[in-house]
Amino acid sequence: MNHERHYFLANYFFLIMGFVSFCYFFYDAGRLIPFKRLSAEEVSHSLRGGDFRIAWATGVFAAQKDVEKIFDDDALKQTDVLKNTQVGGQLSLYPPQWIMVVAQLIPMGYDRAWPAFFWFSFFLYVMGVLCAYRVLGVLAVVLALGFSGFWNNLIFGQNSLLVAGLLLFVQATIIARPWLAGALLSLATIKPQLGFLWPLYLLIAKPVSKNKYVFISAVIATAVFCGASFFFLGRDVWVLFFQHVHAPLERLTENFDTARADVMISTYAALRLTGLSNVWAWFGHGLVGIIAVFILVKTLRGKSSREIKISTLILATLLLSPHAYSYDLVLLIIPILSLLQYCRINGWRQSDLEIFLTFYIFPAFISVINIDFRIPLIALFLLYGLYHLSVLPVLNDESLKDDAVSKK
């Protein structure tokens, strides 16, 4: 079989797989997509929007300048969007800059704000995929929309989809427009637990010709973003945020039964589900984290492509964060499409296909893996994927040529 025929059949297979996946999830959870303005009944009694309702409740108090209630569990539960639903208000780990953004949506009303937020995140996600993976074209979009991680995020109504879109645009602009990439990266601080390794990338990843501009831009833009929240919400909200920032971690360690461990993806949570103590779970989590960081640093300092390096960064982040959930796996679209792009250029191996299919499918079965198996399978999947990407042979990856051109 000739080379062109081989790639035509591979693309045909993945297009069908993505389309079938999209149809399956749309049939199962398509009712959650807000095609029209929500009715009063949906606003008051349904679960439409999921965890976005908690963010909305914090935004309500922020708009009222009642910052004390932003981190008050009981006060959150008494807001209109939470008191008649099963979405429980919890002490928020949302940083003030995200609360400030949500507060700007309050005048719209929840019935309009949730659809607006979803479709903006959706548009950013799709356009980010197109810009970051132009060589894949429509195939990338079909796979992105059929990806189980995307639908997982939709079910929970989390802002990880927005962060995924931002990081896709960071990847697309980091060489040609480093100042823009840094500004976009600063916006991703609305979910800091998904971006805390980016400074490591910018400081040590090779080639480093333009990383310094991204770093400077990100620092300046983050200062402006946080400063705007300080100006809009006041100093007290930051003081209260740092006073409560430890609460989710305390809930995880001291009240593990209330932490929704069935949808968590961290090594720590998986080991606690096996019956191990808090100390041993932290030991296991730390061990996996050390291995992940070692592989990440080696990859960043190597000759892998920009896409592969960012993909290993994403995987290491998911492995290191003890408070990561299934909805954060929407970020796996970056390693998935990076691997697909690499194999389209350099050819497929059996192990490549195994990693691709595993990453594409397993986010749909997080609860089953956690409850029925009760072993850290998710962490093993992510760690093996991280290792696999780190040892991919550097052959004909086109992004390396882009990096070389940027040095001139």
Characterization of this structure:
With 408 residues, the chain is an all-alpha fold. It has 22 helices and no strands. The protein starts with a helix and ends with a helix.
Question: What's the SSE blueprint?
Answer:
Layout: H1 3-29, H2 40-45, H3 52-63, H4 73-77, H5 96-103, H6 110-132, H7 138-146, H8 148-156, H9 160-173, H10 178-187, H11 198-204, H12 211-233, H13 235-244, H14 247-254, H15 267-273, H16 278-300, H17 306-320, H18 333-346, H19 350-361, H20 366-373, H21 377-390, H22 398-407
Spell out the helices and strands N to C.
HHHHHHHHHHHHHHHHHHHHHH
How many beta-strand elements?
0
What is the CA–CA distance across the termini? 40 Å
Q: Give the biggest beta sheet.
A: none
Unreliable sequence segments: 1-5, 404-408
- Tertiary shape: globular
Structural class call reads mainly alpha
Radius of gyration: 21 Å
Task: Note the total helix count.
Answer: 22
Mean pLDDT: 87
Helix content: 55-70%
Percentage of residues in DSSP E strands: under 5%
Give a short synopsis of this structure.
The protein is mainly alpha-helical and 408 residues long. Helix content is 67%, strand content 0%.
Keywords:
single chain; mainly alpha; globular
